[in-house]
Amino acid sequence: MDTYQKRDDHVRTRSWRKMLVMGLIIFIGINLRTIVLAVPPILPLLRHDLGLSYTQTGLITSLPTLIMGGAALPAGLLIGRLGGRFMIACGLALLALGGFLRALWPALLPLYFFTALLSLGIACSQTAIPSLVRQWFPTRIGFVSALFTDGLVIGETLGAVLTIPVVLGWLGQNAWAASFIFWAVPVVIALFLWLWLAPTSPPTHSPEQALSAESSSRAAISTGHKPVRISAWVLGLLIGGAQLTYFGMNAWIASYNQALHIPEMTPLALGVLNAAQLPVNLAATFFADRMAGKRAPFIVTGVICLIAILGWLLTPATLEPLWAAFLGGSATLVFTLGIALPALLARGEQIARMTGTMLTMGYIFSFLGPFLGGWLWDITHVPAVAFLPVAFAALLLLTLGIVLPLHKHMAS
């Protein structure tokens, strides 16, 4: 009787620990996005106080994607040497440091530098998650990976929705520098929780679970190394199109509405753009296995994004929340399907490298969106052209979805 009781207690403890780690992964995801997505709502204030051009303003929101993309592959290589747990701790430390320091020097060059520093921290942490998911949850990779993206979406929503009405409402309508500190504090909390609660080794699984996980892994990589490498780059291009759509809209909604003298639409449009991702991401959590490797998600995403961006520019401003919902939901679907695939398809030692390759391609590609949008706006003095890169991304997703030879067991 005592033996059975001890076994039951061990099972309950292990289940509770797994749930705790899942919650921690979600919390990490939240903090990897709030500190970045809290910036677009205050861009008009930054532009006014620092005397920025639209090109300089666009670079503020483009810089994180550039750094995250450029640093993802080197971070993947370091993860193989130093371990995912250590790299996430380093990433959170850099994220908190950059968040606090850019509030202390509210000038253009320090703002760029410390934004790059915190973006480097995001790259380290984000790239390490898939390899740790494989180690800690080998039989639930898709589900836990989707939980991580749920955290990213929640963080994006909180940063976009709360910054103006809550943060600036408490701190003062011109206290944009103080908002940086507000969003950096939870990152410090996440760092302490990570050092305290994150497992130092993979959890113990029953022989049946281990055999099942190993069999699934071998089946997933049975197509060989070459298809996995190719699919990582292809997936990076697809994710880049979705990221360009998402970051491009976040970058220019506030300034576009300001130029059209409809600033009252900005909080709702930005909030819906980010909040609409959550139900889509939650649905993808349960259907990702069925959708992975199929053309339909990319084709549908491309069509919806193209219709939505045309609707944004051609229909009354009161419909902005509708088009924002379509754009935000479509972009997150592609990212959600992609982030779990390295852990599903690559061998253990290759997961971080494949993730780094995918994110490098995706983020460098998406970097061009807000930056080119601002550059086109400066040249033409037409606010609508800031969204031309978003229209291009929609066409890219549609084209790749139609012509790419996607297969059942490949990451693309």
From TrEMBL:
| Domain Major facilitator superfamily (MFS) profile residues, every copy | 18-409
Q: Does the keyword NAD apply?
A: no
Localization of this protein: Cell membrane
Annotated membrane topology:
Multi-pass membrane protein
Say if the entry is tagged with keyword Thylakoid.
Answer: no
Q: Which SUPFAM superfamilies match?
A: MFS general substrate transporter
Q: Which residues cross the membrane?
A: 20-39, 59-79, 86-105, 141-170, 176-197, 232-253, 296-315, 321-346, 358-377, 383-406
Q: Which Pfam families match?
A: MFS_1
Q: Which UniProt keywords apply?
A: Membrane, Transmembrane, Transmembrane helix
Recorded GO molecular functions are: transmembrane transporter activity
Q: Which InterPro entries does the entry link to?
A: MFS (IPR011701), MFS_Cyanate_Porter (IPR052524), MFS_dom (IPR020846), MFS_trans_sf (IPR036259)
The domain of life for this entry's organism is: Bacteria
User: What's in the GO CC field?
Assistant: plasma membrane
Name-wise, this protein is MFS transporter
